[in-house]
Amino acid sequence: MTHAPNLPLAGLRIVELGHYIAAPFATRLLADLGAEVVKVEPPGGDPVRGWGSNVEGNAVWFSVHGRNKLSVTLDLKNAEDRARLMALLRRADALVENFRAGHLERLGLGPDVLHAENPRLVIGRISGYGQGGPYRDKPAFGAIGEAMGGLRHLTANPGQTEYPPPRCGVSISDDLAGMYCAMAVVAACWQVKGDPSAKGRVVDVDLVSSVFSLMEGMLPEYGLFGWVRQPQGAAIKTAAPTNTYPCADGKWLCIAGNSDLIFKRLMAAIGRPEMAEDPRFATNAGRCENVAELDAAIAAWTKTKPAAEAEAVLEAAEVPCSRLYDMADCANDPHFRERGWVMEVEDPLLGQVLHPAAPFRLDGIHPREMVRWTGPAAGAHNDLVFTAVARGQTAPIKP
């Protein structure tokens, strides 16, 4: 295990009452940036430890999901364990949780109780619909955030009715809510840190509005013109040609040739330079009006070549493009490796495992330095953490 004391959030103390995805994703980002994160799990561990593949009962995903965190186990229905939690929170800068709205209050741990013990505590709360409103008590998972936030409506192919619009393949609404919560918690901690008289804030983040926030200009378009954006499939309604095209080997190539100069290079590369001279295609607006003809011409070319070969031709012409990568492509791509996006990490529970780097680069810090340790076993740091708290230690706790 290595430590990187020059990480920007070193010294920030976070307690996570998180399960499954959203809150643990938020605290993973904070931990990658150097915060001390104490993950409080129930005696059986976070239920997400049972998700997906495993090695001798140790979930592979948790190696990443729980990395750089200290794991302790507490039964929050037990008064003695709630007292231990309160001792943790007295020394913390922030709490991040993703119970259903109102659950903290039902445990006797609502913001009024917590602020009575630690007035400067920032409380980050993630729920399906938020802490207020008519839907606050409804259960929700990530798929519901996608559906109600407007994203799932857009993921179908135009006119397709025989299949439901697909999810994007990951729990995007949980991850978005986690990112927004992490950003807001850091902002609130910054405010408290800069004002000795400041009180702790409550940050209220929900899955639905996290997705809804990505809907670009769709809300003002509806308000002004009554427009409702419809599914576009792999294309973009406002730019052309930008689509994903079939190749000879059954794979797909994403091509973004929508600026005037790039469009000309694209047409030359596929052997159709005359289309670049056609007045109908001289501007992006014209290309959008005639996109079906353009897409047919590009697809006719891509179908004659394997995806990697077509990609190489277009890259040589400086046309933005990419094959649709699967995880094998990501893991073995030389740019991923050179940039440290894919790292080989030693996990005591799993052996050597591949980890994705934190999604930010900091000068002077190699991405590997940001992975100080992998996701630990549930309760692995009980003695370390509770001994430090009993001693009144306020400095960061490090294994």
TrEMBL record:
<dbReference type="InterPro" id="IPR003673">
    <property type="entry name" value="CoA-Trfase_fam_III"/>
</dbReference>
<dbReference type="InterPro" id="IPR023606">
    <property type="entry name" value="CoA-Trfase_III_dom_1_sf"/>
</dbReference>
<protein>
    <submittedName>
        <fullName>Formyl-CoA transferase</fullName>
        <ecNumber>2.8.3.16</ecNumber>
    </submittedName>
</protein>
<dbReference type="InterPro" id="IPR044855">
    <property type="entry name" value="CoA-Trfase_III_dom3_sf"/>
</dbReference>
<dbReference type="GO" id="GO:0033608">
    <property type="term" value="F:formyl-CoA transferase activity"/>
</dbReference>
<dbReference type="Pfam" id="PF02515">
    <property type="entry name" value="CoA_transf_3"/>
</dbReference>
<keyword id="KW-0808">Transferase</keyword>
<dbReference type="InterPro" id="IPR050509">
    <property type="entry name" value="CoA-transferase_III"/>
</dbReference>
